[in-house]
Design brief:
The strands form five sheets. Strands 5, 6, 14, 15, 16, 17 and 18 form a seven-stranded mixed β-sheet that branches. The protein has a five-stranded mixed β-sheet with strand order 8-7-9-13-12, with helices on one face. The protein has five helices and 18 strands. Bound molecules: zinc ion (3 copies). The site of one zinc ion (ZN) has 8 residues, from loops.
């Protein structure tokens, strides 16, 4: 079992002799996938001869695994959460909703132990204010968005909501009533994925503490704000299709993704600092060479990558983050190419550039053992986002001489 580098399909894969990629039967032919990549020429003219290798960035190939991204944007909130399952929120005209009635005697699913502090607090948490905390969001400042959502419902709950609640934003509260969490990608809810999730609560339901409101983190502030107002609408007992419209409609078709940094712009374009490596066909001496290249990167590659990235060999080729193939004859596209490589990864913001890398495949072919580390190292630099000369550590730039490529450049 493997995963097709071209379409992301999981199943039986076939290795491409040219680029080392793994592909499904459909994408196996070379003209069906982004074959080979940026190639590095090697000077085999012998010691002392300085030859500038020609690197054509135009042929740099980045495969985008579109199969890993999801296209639909639907909202899945509004399904009653566990505590609300058998107690629908009451309508405003429900005769049972008379003022002054003790909510503790009304809520069927309310445990005996959680009596209201006072009969006056008629919200699912039975206390006031209702403390709202924030989780996630990364570098992005999401606090103003949550604050604006709360302010919106402060103005509008009397008109639309099933109950009124005095929400108070305390982003780092240790014992909050509601947690708004921002998640990577889209939100996984019961039954699918979408922009956001929240339980449908009502004046008689007893909320879980903390109540989870989850918001997809990959959208613009404007879209995020709309999603958050919508999800808080559910928390306040408003169902899909009810006013305020169109805020409470079930499907939000106009959600805008915000641009995400592309992999090559990240200090570490991988999602992890522990990468697994599969070595294909390496002799002990070649493996020693490659160890040296990895060691150089663990030490920060002359400051071009964050220090401390770990590399561990694995026997599981399909699951390996990095595959290095050693071939005797030229296995790259073109006889002059001594090494080639390709990176893969998802493109969730669909800007045509990989957002982070999930796979690097390197082929080193037809070079002497003592040049294996240099070629592997050069492609590792590429796998850490180097795509222009200035991005590469000096010792791995293409103007290195025959001799320099074979010295202990990593020490
Ligand atoms: Zn495929
Ligand atoms: Zn190929
Ligand atoms: Zn909804």
């Amino acid at each position: 079992m493997g995963q097709c580098d071209a379409c992301g399909e999981v199943g039986r894969t076939h290795e491409c002799d040219t680029c080392g990629g793994e592909h499904c039967l459909v994408h196996h032919p070379r003209d069906r996938h982004d074959c080979a990549g940026l190639a590095v020429e090697d000077e085999d003219d012998g010691p002392g001869v300085v030859v500038l290798a020609v690197i054509t960035l135009a042929v740099l190939v980045i495969g985008v695994v579109t199969g890993l991204t999801v296209a639909e944007v639907t909202d899945l909130g509004g399904e009653p959460s566990a505590p609300a399952a058998d107690t629908d929120p009451m309508r405003a005209d429900d005769p049972g909703d008379d003022v002054g009635r003790d909510p503790g005697t009304v809520g069927r699913d309310e445990p005996e132990t959680r009596q209201p502090a006072t009969a006056a607090v008629r919200n699912p948490w039975r206390e006031s204010p209702v403390v709202v905390a924030i989780e996630g969001g990364g570098e992005r400042s999401v606090r103003p968005l949550v604050a604006e959502t709360i302010a919106f419902w402060e103005r509008n709950d009397g008109r639309y909501a099933q109950y009124e609640a005095d929400f108070e934003l305390r982003p780092n509260a240790t014992d909050p009533d509601v947690v708004v969490s921002f998640v990577d990608g889209e939100v996984e809810c019961d039954g699918g994925h979408g922009l956001g999730c929240a339980p449908l609560l009502g004046p008689r339901t007893l909320a879980e503490r903390p109540t989870d409101v989850r918001i997809a983190g990959d959208f613009t502030n404007e879209s995020t704000l709309r999603t958050m107002k919508h999800e808080f609408g559910h928390v306040l007992g408003i169902r899909h299709g009810e006013p305020p419209r169109p805020l409470m409609r079930a499907v939000e078709a106009n959600a805008q993704r915000r641009p995400l940094p592309d992999a090559s712009a990240r200090p570490n374009p991988w999602r992890t600092t522990d990468l697994t490596v599969y070595l294909d066909n390496a002799t002990a001496a070649e493996r020693q060479q490659i160890d040296n290249a990895f060691g150089f990167f663990t030490d920060g590659a002359d400051g071009t990558v964050p220090a401390g990235i770990g590399f561990e060999y694995t026997d599981n080729r399909s699951a390996a983050d990095i595959v290095v193939r050693i071939r005797n004859a030229s296995a790259c596209d073109g006889r002059q190419q001594a090494s080639c490589g390709v990176v893969n990864g998802p493109d969730p913001d669909r800007d045509g550039a990989i957002e982070y890398y999930t796979r690097l495949r390197v082929t080193v072919s037809g070079v002497g053992t003592d040049a294996v580390a240099w070629h592997a190292g050069r492609w590792l630099a590429y796998g850490f986002g180097a795509d222009e000369t200035a991005d590469f550590p000096t010792v791995l730039r293409s103007n290195r001489t025959y001799r320099e490529r074979r010295d202990d450049w990593w020490s």
